[in-house]
Design a protein that fits this description.
Helix 4 crosses helix 10 (about 370-385). It is elongated and about 80 Å long. The model is unreliable at about 1-30 (pLDDT under 50). The chain is α/β, with parallel strands linked by helices. The longest helix is centred in the N-terminal third of the chain and has 19 residues, at about 1-20. The chain has three domains: about 1-115, Immunoglobulin-like, CATH 2.60.40; about 120-385, SGNH hydrolase (Rossmann fold, 3-Layer(aba) Sandwich); about 395-490, no CATH class. The chain has helices at about 1-20, 125-130, 140-145, 185-200, 220-225, 230-240, 255-260, 285-300, 335-350, 370-385; strands at about 50, 55-60, 65-70, 75-80, 85-90, 95-105, 110-125, 150-155, 175, 200-210, 270-275, 310, 350-355, 395-405, 405-415, 420, 430, 440, 440-445, 450-455, 460-465, 475-480, 485-490. Strand 11, helix 8 (about 285-300) and strand 12 (about 310) form a beta-alpha-beta unit.
Length: about 500
Amino acid sequence: MGRIFRVLILLVVCLVVGVYGCRSGRGDPVRSVIPETLRLPSVLTSGAVLQRDMPIHIWGWDVPGTLVTVELAGNAVSARADDEGRFSVYLPSLAGGGPYSLRVAGTTTITLDDILMGEVWVCSGQSNMEWPVRNSNNGGQEIADADFRRIRILQVPNRSSVIGQDDVDANWQVCSSDTIGGFSAVGYFFGRNLHQSLNVPIGLIDSTIGGTAIEGWISLEGFQSEPQCSHLAEEAVAMGQDNDRASDGARGPTSYFNGMIAPLTGYPIAGVIWYQGESNAGNGYFYRTLMPLLIRDWRSHWQQDEMPFLLVQLANFGPDEPMSFAEARPGASGWAQLREAQSMTVRDTANTGMAVAIDVGDATDIHPRDKQEVGYRLALAARAVAYGQDIIYSGPIYDHMRIEGSTIRIYFDHTAEGLVAKDGALLWFAIAGEDREFFWAEATIEGKTVVVRCDEVANPVAVRYAWANNPQGCNLYNTANLPASPFRTDDWGDGTP
């Protein structure tokens, strides 16, 4: 119902804009040079995938006052370029399919060919989303097999800026062995799974930079809307007023949003997949504010309040951590905190989903190569969250607990037909009493619950599972072969480890 309502509202906008013309209003980047001829943004090129079942937004620049007419699939809409040369129109939505030709006529005429209508997803984050197909597991064969003419890819060049940009230097390409090697592996495997399950064209936009913190991907307006981020808003404003820094290359709050997301927000999309957090693992508690803020912020700029947003929970990484009474007791973990913030975001934010990756990491490499499984799990989440399919799309997620004498019983959502302990007894469960001292515990599956106990803790009050940077061997799954997300039942330390 929500999607139908959005389409009706956008159709009204379509009629108004088609008659009068307007600026995009999506991020309000301003061009300083008055155009001398017709130009379209780089996201509108031949070979593009446009979002199906939504009014089609076409914009660009021409000589101020020029009447620009846009034609697609028998529909035509006109608008005049404003005083800065900007024009913007909406065409009626189309179902999936194509190819179509798109004709834009102003001072000159531009014709875009091989346009498909399908599902468009933005793939963003830091290096694990940026990681290319060629460096994933079996990369050579994956590239050789990448013949999907109805998957189209657009790779946004790395660019940071203290002011919002209105364009990117990119163009759409057909997915093939010649084009896919340097593209986001997670994005590609996600899109391939989605294409095969939905049987519609898929458009993938790769907008990623390795090593970036989430603060760089949130807009100034986003920070200004969140009282806990007022210091970041002030920093971003100061950067924009500093002539020595007001140029491409500035790195800080808002800089990647300005350079690599703002130019995309006029392009209707199905949703976003997001893999980021490694650079924020030192302050997972603040990530509880930043991750939901980024989602609200992007939805606001895209003017899609219910836009699906799917994230990847951080994989296991770091030195092998012992799990036995003789070697060590459970300790603190910054990465576990960050994963908790990601879980809380999905729990508390509508139209979101999460791919758990706690079992596909690499102890010695922050960039695990098994991007196929991550893409598959994201596609499962998309099929359920974005497309309403009644499928099992998540592993077990902690719901609540009950103290039963000297044991604690853990209840979960997303148990499928039941819980499974892979490769023997359950590992990585820990239990504590009122003294908050954790001990490794025995955990047993009973139906769709797990019962946790330890002789050293006679009166337990809290349980943690896989609460470590690299809990290798954590083995709680559901019958759909999807892993449980790490969790804790306590909130001791107000978010500190």
